[in-house]
Design goal:
heterodimer; A: alpha+beta; seven-stranded antiparallel sheet; 21% helix; B: five-stranded mixed barrel; 10 helices; globular
């Protein structure tokens, strides 16, 4: 892990080398990005450790712009010799490309480089946990599983990540964050349940509580029966909400509109979802994580994307902003890229319903399916945002205000445009981790007309 | 480079490892992407580092470093041993490895033209020329292109005495045309939707003749906007070879990974319905279904000389005459189910990752149904689907749903009309038992899948899939609903 001063030293060294390649006739600009991680991952399954890895990697990327051409090169060789070679290779390569008049010069220092609202997300204790510390946590999980004659599998990861970016216009930013992730699957006779949590502080992840909750759910999930496919009400736990909705995030990218790929094309300012749907992007949200600057070092703005169902904005990089006569919102991916930008800190506004409230809304002839989690979610039709996927790790039938029995897993095919027009109730929004996208702040949802199309054998 | 590995192995032994292996990889890569008439991405990368894997205290440990000096490598080995000892405190019994001969060898992947020797101007001009052709077709809203080249120089040594060096060159290429209307987003890609990748040099790019197909895919993308929707029903279906490659990947490749079958991946990638008790007891497919794991196929993306724990490349049956027979395995998992030897399937994305069981080239052996056209004529009426668009399968690998970019209805042995939004679904062993015709070797292609994700943290791996078009009787088509609007 490089400190801010160590990172700055490398950035300055590379930029000084780049300056030597700049001339009046061929002025050059350079951007140096450094990313690093020492997050260690201990994996377990069948109540024993199966893999245990502790890598420590730092990557230096150099983007060079010269004469309306640009290239990006990366190296792991942080020695003076290695960085010198990186610079020389970049300036050799940049000459090989054709001019592109659309390439923008590098940005200057962003006005809002430091945001006082940004929470501290680095915890030294989490960053310095050892293999023995991780083994102790896993040991707790395995002991609880064994005590119930169940089998535990999962990961426990701790460490830290950092990123730094500097350019020849004087911009420099550094950010570091500690990271703890725990996900676990408890199984009995092939029937499973699951939970996952991610936080900057290990102390915020209550491993024992998580394990006990998953054990209880695994026991409830035994002996599932089939449910005929059809449209049902669905209670989506937060991980399910996240792994469904994350398929939509790039549709908020301005580049997806420029390329005419977004399902929200030409709908800015229009009502696209139900009145109860509000979505925004906010790197400073107390439950969010991640760097406060984008792939070009620009400050990430907090902005609404959907307000009470109306599509109010898109996220922009400087490049997409220039094409759409808009302002950059600081959401660029590392440049150059064909994908442009992405919202990185999504918050879906929640409600006040508890799970009991949602269960009680399923009455009379209504039947609902409670989903712990969805799996292998993929886009089937980009225009209607039709997606497919499977339920997994705990699916239950709800009738007359109560969970009545476990059911076998189901395949769904559902339009996210429809889903967000069919939200009946929501719980509070909390930090949530899934497996299809980055963690975000989302609520549990009760929705109508969730379209299950087929079943499977377990 | 072997000197660095010796430092790692000596240090690991010094700190208490009972087994150690080390991989040093020097990787170079070049990625060129075009979007319409501009080069949207030109990236080059170099990655050099060492990964050290040990057994100590009966458990696995792994550490990796990019610092190639004696002090850093010794520290890395020490960390790997510490991590292994922590694992050992939570092992039910100490790890053991299936035996494997000791090797001292060098292996170089077959290639004719080093892609890094071809000028950047030539590569960019190829993609831009394709883009010009695609954009000249009225209605095309986006033209994309991609060339990707990777060179790995990998050194492996183990405490048992194996020392091998492998040089692998991989090349990939893609062009794609998109067309959008208010109601539709359609895309056609060539050679396949993620790009075709091979263990080959620049000659593969020339062989696939991207300029010769740009016009056709552009016209098809536009035509799809107004094509008829794929119908719903149980329909005799011929699946094109690249789509069938992904079908094999998802419904045979992953379920035959022994770590999944043993429950080791259940928390993320999932488990498998192919449990060890079903070996030689499950009729996985019809009698003509023969699936192999072949790491020796020349030029196929999943080939190598030795896997990442020093096991020599092999070709083994996973399904023979329709019966489930074998697994993709590692030295420890093979031994745990009583196999005499690993199947040689342990690979890591790079030096920084621990090896895990991965697909090599999982292939459906060709049949005797002749060419695709002959199979269409033999079938009479049905649907032919081509080029993957979307893929999803449950966590035990039973229920799958795929959609493809394009399909054609055929009647009386002749293609009649183009169909948009095609999809099909099924249950893996039921599906493979409905396979009653496979095209011959003349239509056989090794498709390369460059983006197979597995493991925690996620690793991406190169896998290959040989396939000819094949027929599936009364396949469930169109249940996704995307083809039901007409």
């Amino acid at each position: 892990m490089l400190s801010e001063s160590q990172s700055k030293k490398i950035v300055d060294f590379v930029l000084e080398l780049c300056a030597k390649h700049s001339s009046k006739k061929h002025p050059a600009q350079a951007e140096v990005s450094i990313t690093g991680s020492n997050v260690a991952t201990s994996r377990f399954a069948n109540n024993e450790v199966t893999q245990n890895q502790a890598p420590d990697i730092t990557t230096v990327a150099l983007r060079v712009l010269q004469d309306q051409r640009q290239v990006r090169l990366e190296t792991l060789d942080l020695s003076d010799k290695g960085l010198t070679k990186l610079v020389e290779s970049a300036f050799e390569a940049v000459k090989l490309l054709d001019r592109d008049e659309q390439i923008l010069p590098l940005p200057s220092k962003s006005k809002k480089d430091k945001d006082d609202k940004l929470p501290v997300r680095y915890d030294k204790a989490t960053a310095s946990e050892t293999a023995a510390d991780r083994a102790q946590k896993i040991g707790e999980i395995i002991s609880l599983a064994k005590a119930s004659n169940l089998s535990a599998a999962g990961v426990y990861c701790t460490g830290a990540n950092f990123e730094a970016i500097g350019n020849s216009n004087g911009l420099f930013n550094y950010y570091r964050e500690s990271s703890c992730e725990c996900s676990l699957t408890i199984s009995k006779d092939g029937i499973t349940s699951w939970a996952k949590a991610h936080a900057p502080k290990a102390l915020d992840i209550k491993v024992k509580d998580m394990t006990e909750r998953v054990i209880a759910k695994t026991i409830k999930a035994q002996n599932p029966e089939s449910l005929p496919p059809g449209k049902y009400m669905a209670i989506l736990e937060r991980a399910a909400v996240l792994d469904l909705l994350c398929q939509l995030w790039w549709d908020f990218s301005a580049t997806s509109h420029i390329d005419k790929l977004s399902c929200l094309l030409d709908k800015v300012g229009q009502k696209v979802f139900g009145d109860n749907v509000t979505i925004y992007d906010d790197v400073c949200h107390p439950l969010q994580c991640g760097s406060p600057f984008d792939g070009e070092g620009q400050a990430r703005m907090s902005l609404p994307l959907v307000q009470r169902g109306v599509l109010t904005g898109l996220v922009h990089s400087r490049q997409s902003a220039a094409k759409m006569q808009a302002k950059s919102t600081g959401h660029a991916l590392p440049q150059p890229t064909g994908y442009g930008e992405m919202p990185a800190n999504i918050v879906v506004e929640g409600g006040t319903s508890t799970i009991q409230d949602m269960l009680s809304l399923v009455q009379g002839k209504d039947v609902a399916v409670l989903l712990t989690r969805v799996w292998y979610v993929r886009e089937v039709d980009p225009a209607t945002k039709l997606i497919t996927g499977m339920t997994r790790d705990g699916t239950f039938l709800v009738q007359n205000g109560a969970i009545v029995r476990p059911i076998k897993n189901l395949r769904f095919n559902i339009s996210l445009l429809d889903l967000l027009n069919n939200v009946i109730a929501m719980g509070p929004s909390l930090r949530t981790a899934g497996e299809e996208g980055q963690p975000a702040v989302v609520p549990m949802m009760l929705v109508r007309d969730f379209n299950f199309t087929e079943g499977t054998r377990f | 480079m072997f000197d660095y590995l010796d430092i790692a192995l000596d240090a690991a032994k010094h700190y208490g490892a009972t087994y150690a292996d080390a991989r040093l990889i020097d990787q170079s890569s070049e990625l060129i992407e075009t979007k319409n008439l501009t080069v949207s991405v030109f990236n080059r990368g170099n990655s050099l580092g060492i990964g050290i894997r040990v057994i100590a205290g009966g458990g696995w440990g792994f550490a990796a470093t990019q610092k190639l000096n004696k002090k850093a490598i010794i520290e890395c080995a020490k960390t790997a041993v510490e991590v292994a000892k922590a694992s050992g405190t939570l092992m039910q019994k100490p790890l053991q490895l299936a035996p494997e001969p000791i090797y001292n060898a060098t292996w170089v992947s077959p290639h004719k033209v080093d892609p890094f020797s071809v000028s950047v101007e030539t590569k960019c001009a190829l993609l831009i020329d394709c883009a010009k052709t695609m954009l000249a077709v009225k209605g095309v809203t986006l033209a994309q292109g991609m060339l990707h080249f990777i060179r790995d120089d990998k050194y492996f040594a183990s405490s048992e005495g194996t020392r091998v060096r492998q040089i692998a060159i991989r090349s990939g290429c893609l062009i794609a045309a998109s067309a959008s209307s208010a109601q539709e987003r359609q895309r056609r890609s060539y050679p396949c939707s993620f790009g075709q990748y091979e263990l080959a040099g620049y000659e593969m790019v020339q062989n696939w003749d991207l300029p010769g197909h740009a016009q056709q895919i552009a016209e098809e993308a536009v035509a799809l906007l107004t094509a008829a929707n794929c119908p719903q029903g149980e329909i005799d279906t011929i699946i094109g070879s690249s789509q069938l490659g992904l079908q094999i990947h998802e419904s045979m490749g992953h379920p035959s990974e022994l770590d999944r079958a043993l429950g080791q991946e259940i928390n993320f990638a999932g488990a498998s319905f192919l449990t060890p008790d079903l070996r030689n007891n499950l009729k996985y497919g019809s009698d003509i279904v023969n699936l192999v794991a072949d790491a020796t196929a020349p030029g196929a993306l999943g080939s190598f000389g030795f896997d990442d724990e020093g096991v020599a490349a092999q070709c083994t049956y996973l399904v023979k005459d329709g019966m489930f027979e074998g697994y993709l395995s590692s030295r420890d998992t093979a031994l745990s189910i009583g196999l005499p030897r690993s199947g040689g399937a342990m690979r890591a994305e790079s030096w920084r990752f621990v090896p895990i069981i991965r697909m090599t080239n999982i292939s459906l052996l060709p049949g005797n149904a002749g060419t695709l056209q002959e199979l269409i004529e033999d079938t009479g009426s049905g649907i032919y689907m081509e080029t993957n668009k979307s893929w999803s399968i449950d966590s035990m690998r039973f229920n799958f749903q795929f959609s493809t970019e394009i399909a054609w209805e055929f009647k009386k042995g002749k293609r009649t009309r183009m169909l948009k939004n095609p999809s099909y679904s099924g249950i893996t062993p039921v599906f493979w038992n409905t396979c009653d015709a496979i095209c011959s070797e003349s239509d056989y292609t090794y498709w390369g899948t460059p983006n197979c994700g597995k493991g925690q943290p996620m690793q991406v791996m190169w896998t290959g899939h040989g396939a000819s078009p094949a027929r599936f009787r009364k396949l469930t088509v169109g249940i996704s609903g995307s083809g039901a609007k007409a």
